[in-house]
C-alpha cells in the first residue's frame, strides 16, 4: 500500500485506491461458478461435519470421564465393540456385578471382539 499511516479520511482513501489501480497493484476477485462452487460448498460442509463429530466425541469422552472414571483404564478405546457392549449393558454407573458376569461376558464372547479389553478390566469388575 502507498499509505501506511493510521489516519483515515474520505479524501485520502479514494486517492490511495486510484493509485493502486493505476499502478496495477490489485487483485481481481475470483468467484467460483458451477462445479467449482459446488466443490467449495461440499468441502465446507465436510469440514463442518468433521468439526461436529469432534465435538460429539469430546462430549462422550467427557461424559465417560465424569461418570465412569475407570473406563479409560479398562478399555483402550471407547469405540471398540466390547466397550460398546459394556455401555449398552450398563448405561448408568450403578450396576449389579452378577448381571455383568452373565450378560456382558456372554455378549462379548458372542461378538468375539474383546480386543480393546485390557487386563485391568477383570480387576475392575
Task: Describe it.
By secondary structure, the protein is mostly helical. The chain is 63% helix and 0% strand. The chain is built from 6 helices and no strands. The relative contact order is 0.08.
Topology, element by element:
Layout: H1 12-23, H2 34-67, H3 71-74, H4 81-89, H5 97-111, H6 120-124
Work out the radius of gyration: 29 Å
Main sheet characteristics: none
Helical content class: 55-70%
Round the mean pLDDT to the nearest integer and report it.
76
Give the H and E element order.
HHHHHH
The share of residues in extended strands comes to under 5%
State the end-to-end distance: 69 Å
Number of separate helices: 6
In terms of per-residue confidence, which ranges show pLDDT below 50 for 5 or more consecutive residues? Answer: none
Gross morphology: elongated
- Structural class comes to mainly alpha
Q: State the total count of DSSP E strands.
A: 0
Structure, briefly:
This protein has 125 residues and is mostly helical.
Give short descriptive properties of this protein:
6 helices; mainly alpha
Amino acid at each position: 500500500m502507498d499509505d501506511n499511516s493510521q489516519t483515515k479520511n474520505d479524501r485520502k482513501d479514494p486517492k490511495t485506491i486510484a493509485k493502486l489501480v493505476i499502478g496495477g497493484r490489485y487483485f481481481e476477485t475470483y468467484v467460483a461458478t458451477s462445479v467449482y462452487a459446488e466443490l467449495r460448498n461440499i468441502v465446507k460442509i465436510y469440514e463442518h461435519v468433521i468439526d461436529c463429530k469432534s465435538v460429539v466425541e469430546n462430549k462422550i469422552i467427557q461424559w465417560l470421564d465424569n461418570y465412569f472414571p475407570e473406563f479409560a483404564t479398562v478399555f483402550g478405546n471407547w469405540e471398540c465393540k466390547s466397550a460398546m457392549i459394556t455401555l449398552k449393558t450398563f448405561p448408568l454407573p450403578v450396576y449389579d456385578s452378577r448381571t455383568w458376569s452373565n450378560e456382558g461376558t456372554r455378549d462379548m464372547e458372542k461378538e468375539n471382539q474383546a480386543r480393546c479389553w485390557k487386563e485391568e478390566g477383570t480387576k475392575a469388575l
